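Progress note, project year one: complex with 5'-O-[(L-methionyl)-sulphamoyl]adenosine.
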Amino acid sequence: MKRYLTTPIYYASGSPHLGHAYTTLVADCYRRYGQLAGDDVLLATGTDEHGHKIERAARSAGMATSAFVDARSGEFERLWRALGIGVDQFERTTSGSHKAFAQAFWQRLAASGDLYRGEYVGPYCIDCEQYFSDGETCPVHSKPLETFREPSWFFRLSRYQDALISHIESHAAFIVSATRRNEVLSFLRGNALRDLSVSRMSTRWGVPVPGDNGHVMYVWIDALVSYLSALSPAGPADLDDETLRGRWAHTSHFIGKDILTFHAIYWPALLMSAGFALPESLVVNGWLTVLGRKIAKSDPETVINPLPLTEMVGRDGLRWYLLRSVSLGRDVDFSHEALIRSVNADLANNVGNLFSRFIALARKRIGPEWRCEAAFAPGDDALRDGIGRHARAMRIAFDAGNPAIAAREFVDAAASVNAFFQRQAPWQIDSQPRLATVLWVIYGVLCDLTVMGAPFIPDAIAKARLGLGVSAVPSWADIGVRRDSARTLPMAPLFPRVSVDL
Ligand code: MSP
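Model obtained:
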């Protein structure tokens, strides 16, 4: 099945930090999860490069805006590569294909009769590129809001209020989780939507509004449309292209809670107006915080660069900690101690140790290849069944938008294999047929663990599969499969214990 996953396109106003990496890792984890089922998954990310915020950041860096965004965008692209994230399409909103696409999309809104001219007056947060009502303050940035007054095009958002409510009511999985869904629904039920100002005259740094050159599109319109334009990177702006629409039909947007309104209210309304299906789901993460404050460029004390962390615990280590320890949707304070504790306890002592011990012991006691030589004892089946149950529970957790619980199923499964290993003590078994059987049973469940671990620790899983002599591509269909023979190859430790003085 075709699936399309997106991260937000990140503002090219500064360098990437751990908060951006977190959302991107969650999306990549789901990309790998989909691939286990044989899905054809496409992950798009990119950079949001227009608007006042970017223009000002370039000015204060003393750079031409286009050179500035090239440099920032390159940093994001390099970071995703360094973290091993499987980016299929990196979309930049300053690209020619995106601009053409955004203009074609705009014309659809106009053709639906949803655009009209007016004047926008009101407070605005440049850091969020977001409108507020009189008397409101921005919940993210503590700076005073600026007042904007300018002629503007408006989008008839108010027309879509009832359609939005009924879509969210009838699609329980549209907004993950229930708390966020209820938040959006109660907002929509309790407040009349006002039409949205969708163009600017006060900046030239944007996508020109078709047929009205004094205006550029409001940066959020241009940014949201990037989710569609990423599916048409080289081609013409053909909104009815079948390949594009086929892929679009199975879309999940991974976003932070700070941009839920844009994705749950503005974007669906724009899509309805332009004649597109709505995404299947919005998977909403909470904030990574430092000292209780959101990690954000605008608060430099909180900013953490992910790369030095990967030097300390490996990129699997960082990925594991974020996915296992942060319950999706919650805010979690980042701590170096917790990162190291989690990597040592779950990965070095539990998972890594299990694979290394097993391979070393099997090679010593039985050689590189062997067959199952005796009937199973009752405990052998129980272990295999238990792993099957963990694998099923993992899929349920993933499908419910709960990767932290899915990760727990994986370590619990590894712990049960460790316990079996201890109990059976194959280093003491004298009977050759029983030894071969015990090692064969453990080998089989280790193969299963390499499937379950693939979304979380892909580098280690690639090594472990080499060590177990199985194909590089893990698949759910292989779980519980009885192999004719087992074989191992020498393998370097997967996760050396981390000991650093903090
Ligand atoms: N450019 C817009 C998004 C447009 S999408 C059509 C934007 N960019 S951003 O650079 O501010 O990044 C937003 C996303 O980065 C958040 O929604 C969230 O997914 C992620 N995060 C940024 N800081 C974060 C934390 N401190 N914690 C968790 N996620 C964080 O908004």
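The two ends are 46 Å apart (CA to CA).
Residues 8-11, 19-20, 22-23, 48, 223-224, 255-256, 258-259, 285, 287-288, 294-296 surround 5'-O-[(L-methionyl)-sulphamoyl]adenosine (CB under 6 Å).
No further modelling is planned for this target in the current period.
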